[in-house]
């Protein structure tokens, strides 16, 4: 059945990168669960209190690494979905770069030294900025018709 294709064929890369991020998020979730057991932080406690748990900072760093990734996820997904309509390959590459930097951001944070999250993790902002440019380009293209 012939039909009009609304999305470029390469948009599949965008979809695959978004699913890859979901797998990273699942992995981070499991890391937080393991840290809960290791540092004795029961549910529903979101952050451990240092006066009650001598290893609170270690748990909180793992939790914070995941939480920060969740905070950025809606923006990342929105920029990927919209920018990828006009620039699917560029967005997929930038999205993959973002995912790699998010992994290292989390691993660095989980050491208990928050500064280590920035060693490679800081480059994720370059990917986000690139995705913003792609999405702005998409918006301009739509306005011009």
Salient structural properties:
single chain, 5 helices, elongated, mainly alpha, 145 residues
Round the mean pLDDT to the nearest integer and report it.
95
How would you sum up the major sheet?
A: none
Poorly predicted runs are none
Structural category: mainly alpha
- Tell me, briefly, the overall form: elongated
Order of helices and strands: HHHHH
Number of H/I helices: 5
Per DSSP E runs of 2 or more residues, the count of β-strands stands at 0
Strand content: under 5%
Radius of gyration: 18 Å
Helix content: over 70%
N- to C-terminal separation? 28 Å
Protein described:
The structure is a single chain. This protein is an all-alpha fold and 145 residues long. The protein has five helices and no strands. Helix 1 (11-39) packs antiparallel against helix 2 and helix 3 (88-109) packs antiparallel against helix 5.
What does the secondary structure layout of this molecule look like, with pairings?
Layout: H1 11-39, H2 56-86, H3 88-109, H4 118-121, H5 124-144
Helix pairs in contact: 1-2, 1-3, 2-3, 2-5, 3-5
Report a brief summary of the structure:
This protein has 145 residues and is an all-alpha fold.
